[in-house]
Each structure stands twice: as structure tokens, then as C-alpha cells.
Amino acid sequence: MKLPTWKRLVLKVGSALIAPERQGCSSRYLLTLAQFIVRCRAQGTQVILVSSGSIAAGAHRFPEIPPATTPSARVALKKAMAAAGQTEMMAAWDKLFDFPSAQILLTHGDLRDRERYESIRETIFTLLEHEILPIINENDTVTTDALKVGDNDNLSAMVAAAADADTLIICSDIDGLYDKNPHLHADARLQPEVKRITQAIYDMAGGSHSDVGTGGMRTKIEAAEKAVSHGIDTYIINGFNESAFSALLVGGNPGTLFHADERPMQELQHWMTHTASEQGEVIVQTVPGQTLDEHCARLSCNKVLEVRGEFAAGDTILVRSKDGTRLAKARANYGSSLLIFITEHDDPELTSNLTDAQGSIISEQDIALLEHR
Asked: Partner of 320 at 20 to 30 A CA spacing, among 155, 273, 274, 340?
């Protein structure tokens, strides 16, 4: 075995490891996690911690939710739990380290906005430069359905890409990816390595057996797919197993290793593909025999067949062909209202003026081709 050569590592820890009994934070598993982080830093590896658990940590501060409680009241109560639990969780981590840490709370709205995304990157890099441990969580107190990532598995992959990490470790409640659910099938076999994530790999994914977390195995594979496409090796390990962390530190593979793509996406293309969410769609006319690049290059207004959703100039949109093929995600040069007006009014002069002004309905600098997705 070779000692790991990680330069920058993202470690994702779930709620069941933070507050397994939903009675506040527990040191039962946190001590092992903290020791792993300390040893990684001692070996020269920069570490970023993505830590779930604020709701689970704060739940004990509130009475049980009555069955008759309205959905909106339930959501408000969970947000309050997150607010109370976040400080408790940060305090628990701080007690375990003799170096400083910093809290970063994010929503998907922060990550999908390019300016805020760049600001997040700069903050993480500055903290690491000053040997401060970034501890990142989704901001459950303020997030909404439209703005949330929804699970910290995918959040950890987005953070790993934003931080230019080379390794992502996702803690699970089982040893890794099995070919079938090991809780139900005695003959389930652990998959030690995955070199390419295909539909067959997704078909192996089952749900999590934790009653305090939100992410199952499928979200972990989704996260791995995001990470490896950015050139990030990704491990899924059993976070409850202390020996798993010892094995990692000496170059072992105690779970499932998803190998980084040999030809990873460039940073901007990865952000467009995996982090920026489309606010609408534009259906365009394609020409048989043209390459994907040719379909999307200088995409003029007269090729627009249909506009779906509401978006403004500068928003990320999905470009599809008439047959439904996903061609690209890109920044829109025009809002949906103007494009709809163009498609409903055959005005060559207006189309010509718009084409002269911008040259394309999408930004040729901010585009991610989706040929293989």
C-alpha cells in the first residue's frame, strides 16, 4: 500500500454520526472523525468538512411535532431546530480541535449564482491558506424548495468542485456500494472500485437505513458522479467503522472508490453542468449532420421553436432539440418574455437587430455541452 497523496480533501459527515439519538451532539463517533481530520492535516492534507446534523442536533430542544400540525408549521419547526442545532454542532466540533474552524452556511441559490460561487471559492481558499478548517452545511434555516440542494451528499460534491479538491470521502451507514441491499440480501457483494458510473451502478443503489439522515445510496452515487467528472477521486465508506479511517490513512480502500475521470471537465463547464440549475428551456431547430458544437455556436433567434419557463437575461437555461435531446446548458442573453415575443411574431427586422446586437441567444463564454448526458 502507498500512503495517500491527497492535497485537498472534502469529508462529508451525516446526521446519524453527529446526533445518533437526536438528543444533541454525541462524541460517540465524532472523536474518530476528528482524529482522522487531525491526522490528515498532520500529513499535509488540507481538509474541508461538510457536516450535516443541525436539525438532528437541535431536535431535543423542541417537543415532538403533533400529528395535526400543518405542513408549513412543520417546516418552520424544522428550521428552528436547524437554527438551534447549528450552534450546538459547531461547538461540538470546536471542542475536538486545537486549531480554529470557520462556519460556512450555503444554499443552492448561493452555488448556482456565478458571482456568489466565486466568492465561496475565494473564502474557502483563504481559510485553508490560514490553516482554518472550513465546516460547511446547507443553510436549513433560510433555504426553500427552490433554493435548496436537499442533501449534503450532493452539496459535498459541489463544494469539492468549488474548492478544487482532489479527494471526496462520503460517510455512509454501510461499507460502500453493494450490488444489492446488504440489509436484505446475505449474498450482497461490496463493489470495491467503480471506474465508470453507468445506469447499472445506479440500479445497485438502495435507500439509507438511518432514521435521522436524508441521503440514501443514490444521492451518494449522484455526488460521486459530480465529483469524478471534475477529476476528484471519491470514496464511500462506513462512517461508523473506526477501522475504515485507519485504512484510508495508510492507503487502503475500506469501501468503494469511484475513480476520477481521466479527462475531467473544466471548472466552468463543470459548474454549468452540475451546479447551475436551469431556470427555463429553449427548444431550437437543429440541422441533420451538424455536430453539437455547430448546433450551439452562434445560436440565433430564428432557430428558436419554443420557450419554456420564465427566466431573465443572465440566467442559466437548458437548450434542447425538437426531439428532446439535451444539447447544452448556457447563460441566456435574452429573457424568456422577449424570446417568446420573437417566436410568436415573425419579424425579420427585429430578429436581425437582436442577432446583430448579441450574435447568439446564449453566451458562447458560459456554455456546457451535454453530448454525453
From this structure: 155
